[in-house]
Write a structure and sequence with these properties.
The structure is a homodimer of 221-residue chains. The first copy, chain A, has 221 residues and is mostly helical. Chain A is built from six helices and no strands. In chain A, α5 packs antiparallel against α6. The interface between A and B is large, with 39 and 38 residues.
């Protein structure tokens, strides 16, 4: 019985790794659709979000079933509650990737992002992909150092967002109100993806140590 | 033992009602600070978010303790997992109210919102306050009808947001890029508060019926 239980527990953590890989790909494809004005790819990300939602439902239900049948305590209970919260965060990141793709679709055949900001968005996207793609594995490996590293990566994301504001609010901005609004909202979506990864990192720290990271507020999704 | 347990369960649900009342007040005050360019009130909302975070941590910890000690099943397990998720959503709504207040503070002594849009934001705020303020009580009363009604209110929120876009992207917009960007981000914050309330409504439907609302995706925070 206990062995089946531990297999179940490992299996939901493994599914979480698979889900985090899928979100990484969604962020990559949404960004490519955005920067290359690729309508087909945008549509693929948008329709793919249904699959992400299905993974979310299934994984949450499985975790709930383990909670109901096995009545776990201590570290195992912490892990299962963390999985439920992390699954919600990954689902939300998937929605945000779809939001990015929807702006790409809305502006097609134009490019939503003007040339002076494409490199900035490319960097935001790489950072977000890196954070999302790692977070499942960080839980599976109980890697405390890498869990803490996610908060450092988030600072870089904040810097990139500040740069965007300087560009769109600068006196030499030539691309109009609509593009500025697109940039502000898109920047917000990438920033939120990174925030969710940081929250997940804090959850992992709690799972490993039983304590919240010092001086940090409890993460909210 | 079972009686203490049921008292504990009622008590976390009551705390959730208290927390939802606090968020309602935060949204009300943040909006007043925004529309009246009231710096002191903006500061109060921003510093008050620490208290909301503390309520979040405490309530989550108490729910976790009940899970660990009482090994609930069925409807009670659904309730406790829903409480953990709803507490996260309320914490997030508190962050969003603080974001609104931060824009009020950033633009002080100017008004962030120009006159043609104040009534729109007033309506968004009233709607958000209504949804947030009700959602705790809807869980406490297991009120299926009102839980479903939250999704209808959300449609009105979406309409208000569409109106905002028509104004800021209209050819007669006179208030510049910065104000348009503020409006777009502020509108997003109110919309997200409403989205969280809808997610909480779906959680409540699940707690009451054991089923997800038909045709709906599982809510993600």
């Amino acid at each position: 019985m206990r062995e089946i239980y531990h297999n179940d527990l490992d299996s939901v953590v493994n599914e979480l790794v698979v889900m985090s890989d899928s979100i990484q790909i969604a962020v990559r494809d949404a960004t490519r659709a955005l920067l290359e004005a690729d309508l087909q790819l945008a549509e693929r990300v948008i329709s793919g979000d249904t699959r992400v939602d299905a993974m979310h439902d299934q994984l949450e239900q499985r975790t709930f079933t383990i909670l109901a049948r096995q009545s776990p305590v201590a570290g195992e209970l912490r892990t299962l509650v963390a999985v439920i919260q992390m699954v919600a965060a990954l689902g939300r990141m998937g929605d945000l990737a779809a939001h990015i793709a929807k702006i790409a679709r809305l502006r097609f055949p134009d490019h939503a992002i003007p040339e002076p900001l494409t490199e900035n968005f490319r960097r935001m996207s790489r950072l977000a992909q890196d954070m999302v793609g790692n977070v499942g594995r960080i839980l599976a490996e109980r890697n405390l150092e890498e869990a803490k590293h996610l908060a450092e990566q988030d600072e870089e994301m904040d810097d990139l967002r500040s740069q965007q504001f300087r560009v769109i609010l600068g006196s030499d901005w030539q691309h109009g109100v609509e593009t500025a609004v697109d940039v502000a909202l898109l920047g917000r979506y990438y920033e939120r993806i990174a925030d969710h990864a940081v929250s997940m990192g804090r959850r992992i720290i709690y799972v490993i140590t039983g304590d919240l990271p010092e001086g940090e507020n409890w993460p909210t999704t």
